Amino acid sequence: MNNLILVRHGQSFWNKERRFTGWADIGLTEEGKLEAERSGQLIKELNIEFHAYFTSQLKRAINSLEIILKILGKQNVEIIKSEALNERHYGGLTSLNKDETIKKYGHKQVQIWRRSFNVPPPPMNSQHPYKDKINSHISSESLKDTFERVMPYYNKKIEPLISLKKNILVVFHGNSCRSLLKKIFNISNEKIVEFEIPTGNPLLIRFGKNLEVKEYKYLDDKRAKKILFNV
Asked: What's the confidence (pLDDT) of residue 66?
């Protein structure tokens, strides 16, 4: 039985400050580094030999994976980095504090931007302070947009390895992970937006024949979130 382990990066500075991060390249807090270390320790206890390691092109995910690999004693392995695994692009909301944004636009509107499946936030315009810091043709993404970015990459680069019974470790972001789990567990558009993914808690998924999910669990039971599927 082959294994896919998905890890949302450890806490970033903007996670801590409750700011919309998206494609802004924000580093890990000390707590985030500890979360990554703990992830590495939990993964090490499984005694799995991995065949490929994937991450996004954002340093909070890359650094989390590097910390995990150090715990695993695998610092010299190839890390496959792809923009396709980046966090959802939050457009004009990027860098804004979530509580202040709610005060300005109202809770209902912010919830639509954050949690609806197919409504993107306002686009990032040319005056946005992070416009020149984010090298992307994308100006804003809904979760649907993120899903449509993540899935072709997964189908082409990761799923074939799983079919070959390879063990894969992916360290990425809340919404890119949410997009992938929507596919793996056949979660509906309505339910996927309710699905919370904890930072720094590895999710182990074991597949049987024909990529059928045989087992799944968060490795840290105390910080686990409910996995919604087949709804």
From this structure: 98
Q: Is 9 a catalytic residue?
A: yes
**Token pair 């509107």 is at which residue?**
109
The closest alpha carbon to 200, from 20, 30, 85, 84, belongs to 30
* Beta strand residue intervals within 45-198, DSSP E: 52-55, 80-81, 168-172
**pTM metric for this prediction:** 0.94
H or E, element range at 38:
helix 30-44
Q: Which of 87, 128, 141, 173 is catalytic?
A: 87
Q: In what order do the strands lie in the sheet with 80-81?
A: 80-81, 52-55, 168-172, 2-8, 203-207, 213-218
**Structure-token match 């809904």, residue found:** 142
Cβ contacts of 19 within 8 Å, gap of 6 or more:
95, 96, 97, 98
* Reported confidence tier of residue 1, pLDDT bands at 50, 70, 90: low
Token representation of residue 31:
């707590």
**In whole angstroms, how far apart are CA 80 and each of 38, 157, 186?**
22, 10, 26
Q: What is the rounded CA–CA span in Å between residue 10 and residue 32? A: 4
